[in-house]
């Protein structure tokens, strides 16, 4: 793995290189995606079935479109019992963490009869997109469904592309069922996003669409944003390990590779104050790559977006971590909690040498759907907050309004909004 | 004002008619907006000054681009002192309400050495767009800046188009200064959004862009979403009054008109169970329209998007309110609090006959930046939450990880992610 001495110039080059991975760069597919969306809006289910035949190579009909209870039961017979048991254990942790995110409606009242508040209401219908294709990630199914469920969403509708046999992977069905999904439809790609956003004969329009997908799915989500809400636009995975000389190079190397294996666009970066650690991690990485099953992907990812950066001091290292704003940040320093207080931008922060990143992917409880590509500067992990909306509550008594009615009228008049002023004034006109 | 007997068919027609007002319908301007964005990314300040000359008819240079302290001082001399006093009173209420929205980082630890948490960090830089043109709304300046300020945003950067004299309206400057803005630049339109999203020589890239604007501004915000965060895409204003026979028709009529006067696309709807109230409100509306200064706008708005709907019962009336999901909802019924508990979708809810909508626009404290066009089904009022982001915190001890390490390894292997499994396994290999 390349070792680079951290300079301002190097840092800027790296930041620019990493942004090449952004789904924002793929606008060339926008027209294709818009065509698919328009077609689904116009032809609904018919368009979906045509795309599924074209892209997934399987004929789906009204009768086979929705996953049946029998299909789910069958799926259970095909999944290893040990895996079901692990999924159930993980679910306990994931539910437990998200439960702590639940917020309450509140109000604050005064004795003059005024009351102000904020009402929390769960979204009514949510669409969860689950990718098909090369990789099957039941953990991702859990992470997208649980926060919606905990928020109190009435209907959770999942879509996922069927295999050539017209079935959904058994483990996907089991994970979705365990997490509490309400309906599952066999459709993927931009067409699935369009169906969820605008509705078809079979799929009722949802309020929000979440879940990862390929570039077509990402662009479709961006295109329908505003018609519905979306989570964020997911980019390739990332890890940044912030380490000093106290870190175990073997653990650091293994953790870097855990993200590098996701895909060739994934990024694994070590920022360290220790030149010795840099060298040792690089050696350990070389040793691991040889024996890991996804070595081709890992090597390409490391060559394109992997760096070991040696910083002059911890301040420079922390500043760099904040500028990169990584999806996953591991802090392996003498005092990880102290270092953590200086972190501004990161999706999830893993503290100390036993908080390996995959612990968060599967088991600890916090969501593994995290902001990528520097968007941790302004986006947050998927959470219960994503599945509720707020309404302000305003209640004034006659007495309270009377005290301030001329202020409001004068403010409205200053904005030349006389009907605004009038609506307050009529309440105090001579009767 | 037209009175319509509520039926399923009428309701669907109305819902469809209202959605015509959505900024999502204006994709024909997308190419123009994309060209502006590309030009600003390439030519930065130079492009901004060219657009300002073209669209706003005034030559701005590096020297006059940023509003100076002297310009702000000068603005104070031109604004009515009474208005400044009202702004300060409103600010107290707005700050006070938003202060209640502040959330804390939290953690939960167990005695086996595990700790999970959620860290709250304010966004570093926020851009606030303030429209120029026909209308000057200092209240909107307050509502966009205060939540960012309360959240702890380090730098709040405002952009607004200059007038032909190269100046910003004095009241806009005063409101921005009172609310605590850090920098103000004289640029508007899609070019201002592009500058905030990507940065120029003068304007540093921000993390999030908020604030209302015309269709070009709305489309530009949608286009840069993902590069930065945005609030939501604002549509025309709306009010829905839910009333029974106990409501005062004169107040209801005045409140409907307060939103109808905003623009010709605004929508004012009364849903009532009382035919008598319907008739009386219609008469009162006619009386008011004659004498109000913005009567042309009001009449067009009412003709296109104004309705008095008579429902068979309160349940039907409430269901309709939930389906329309109005930006502003007034509840004027026998027991407004009871009715409120049945409301799922609304930006802001005003309870009882003295909670006239303009009270919320200017003074009560809750934000007046609210979801429009049915998006209250999934979007929320602008709040302190919009100016923070969250990071998950995960810290496991060796002891805690040891208990579950084989579960994680097996889960990772089931997803065929062997480097994930390896990163956990190395921590428990025989040393």
Automatic annotation (TrEMBL), chains A, B:
Q: State the InterPro entries in the record.
A: Ald_DH/histidinol_DH (IPR016161), Histidinol_DH_CS (IPR001692), Histidinol_DH_monofunct (IPR022695), Hstdl_DH (IPR012131)
One Pfam family recorded for the sequence? Histidinol_dh
Q: Which organism is it from?
A: Butyribacter intestini
What is the similarity comment for this entry?
A: Belongs to the histidinol dehydrogenase family.
Domain of life of the organism in this record?
A: Bacteria
Provide a GO biological process annotation. L-histidine biosynthetic process
- According to UniProt, the name of this protein is Histidinol dehydrogenase
Q: Which GO terms describe its molecular function?
A: histidinol dehydrogenase activity; NAD binding; zinc ion binding
**So what EC number does this one have?**
1.1.1.23
Q: Which GO terms describe its cellular component?
A: cytosol
Q: Its pathway?
A: Amino-acid biosynthesis; L-histidine biosynthesis; L-histidine from 5-phospho-alpha-D-ribose 1-diphosphate: step 9/9
The residues listed in the UniProt record as binding NAD(+), with positions renumbered to this chain, are: 129, 191, 214
């Amino acid at each position: 793995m390349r070792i680079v001495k951290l300079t301002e110039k190097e840092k800027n080059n790296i930041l620019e290189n990493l942004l090449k991975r952004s789904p924002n760069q793929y606008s060339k597919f926008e027209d294709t995606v818009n065509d698919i969306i328009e077609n689904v809006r116009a032809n609904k289910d018919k368009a979906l079935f045509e795309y599924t035949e074209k892209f997934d190579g399987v004929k789906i009909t009204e009768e086979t479109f929705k996953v049946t209870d029998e299909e789910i039961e069958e799926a259970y017979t095909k999944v290893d019992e040990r895996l079901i048991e692990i999924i159930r254990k993980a679910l306990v942790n994931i539910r437990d963490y998200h439960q702590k995110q639940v917020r309450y409606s509140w109000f604050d009242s005064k004795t003059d009869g005024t009351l102000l508040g904020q009402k929390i209401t769960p979204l009514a219908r949510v669409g969860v997109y689950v990718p098909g294709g090369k990789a099957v990630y039941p953990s991702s199914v859990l992470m997208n469904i649980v926060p919606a469920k905990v928020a109190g969403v009435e209907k959770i509708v999942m879509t996922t592309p069927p295999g050539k046999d017209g079935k959904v992977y058994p483990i996907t069905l089991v994970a979705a069922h365990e997490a509490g999904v309400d309906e599952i439809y066999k459709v993927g790609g931009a067409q699935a996003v369009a169906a969820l956003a605008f509705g078809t004969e079979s799929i009722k329009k949802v309020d929000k669409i979440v879940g990862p997908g390929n570039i077509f799915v990402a662009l479709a989500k961006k295109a329908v944003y505003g018609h519905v809400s979306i989570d964020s636009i997911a980019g390739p995975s990332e890890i940044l390990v912030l380490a000093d000389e106290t870190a175990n190079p073997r653990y650091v190397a293994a953790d870097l590779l855990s993200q590098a294996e996701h895909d060739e666009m994934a990024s694994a970066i070590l920022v360290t104050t220790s030149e010795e650690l840099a060298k040792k991690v690089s050696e350990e990485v070389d040793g691991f790559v040889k024996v890991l099953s996804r070595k081709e992907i890992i090597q390409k990812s490391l060559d394109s977006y992997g760096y070991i950066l040696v910083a002059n001091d911890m301040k420079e290292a922390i500043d760099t971590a904040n500028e990169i704003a990584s999806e996953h940040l591991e802090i392996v320093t003498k005092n990880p909690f102290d270092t953590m207080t200086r972190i501004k931008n990161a999706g999830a922060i893993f503290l100390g040498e036993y908080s390996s990143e995959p612990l968060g992917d599967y088991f600890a409880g916090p969501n593994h759907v995290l902001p990528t590509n520097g968007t941790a500067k302004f986006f947050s992990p998927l959470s219960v907050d994503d599945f509720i909306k707020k309404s302000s509550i305003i209640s004034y008594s006659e007495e309270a309004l009377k005290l301030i009615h001329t202020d409001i009228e004068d403010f409205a008049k200053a904005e030349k909004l006389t009907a605004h002023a009038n609506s307050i004034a009529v309440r105090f006109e001579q009767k």
